[in-house]
Amino acid sequence: MGSFGNAQQLKKTMMKILKKILGIFMIISVLGIAYVWFFVYNKPHRNFDKAKPDVILSAQSFYNNYAKKIKSCNGKVVQINGIPKKIETNDSLAVVVFVFDQGMFGDEGVRCTMLPKYRNSAENLDLSKTVTIKGFCAGYNGTDVILEQCSIIK
Predict the structure, then answer these.
(1) Among 147, 136, 137, 145, residue whose Cα is nearest residue 48
(2) Per-domain residue ranges of the chain
(3) In whole angstroms, what is the distance from residue 94 CA to residue 109 CA?
(4) Which of 99, 100, 145, 151 could form an S-S bond across to 107 if both were Cys, CB 3.0 to 4.6 Å?
(5) Among candidate residues 64, 80, 62, 55, the one with its CA nearest the CA of residue 131
(6) How far apart are the C-alpha atoms of 96 and 127, rounded to whole Å?
C-alpha cells in the first residue's frame, strides 16, 4: 500500500507542476498578444505628406533609372519634378501621370496616386508647367513606376 500512496502523491505533484507551467504559458501568451496589438497592429500609419524624401530626382531620371532595373527606391519616399502629361480621376482618387514612352499597352512612365486631400489640386494642375510631387515608391508594374500616397509640393 505504501507504493500506491507514493504514486498518488507523485501524480498530484505532477499535476501541480503542469498547472504552473500552463499558467505561466497563458500569462506569456496574453502578454505577447498585448504587445503585438499595442506596438504592431495599433501602430499609426506613416504620414507621407510630412515625410522627408529619401530621393530627389526629375520624373524622367526616376523613370529611366527604374526602367533599367535600378530598384533602390522601392519602399522609400521619393520626390520627383517634371511636366505631367495627364490627370486621371475617379470617385475619390486622382492620378498624375508623367509619360515618357509608348509601349504595347499605351503610355508608360510614372503614375502618382494622390492623397485624397490633394485630389482638387491635382485636377487643377497646369499640364504645361513643372510640378513637384512626393510619394511612396510602391514599385514597377511592367509599364509604370508607381508612387502612392502622393502630395504636391509647392
Answers:
(1) 136
(2) 1-43, 55-153
(3) 16
(4) 99
(5) 80
(6) 10
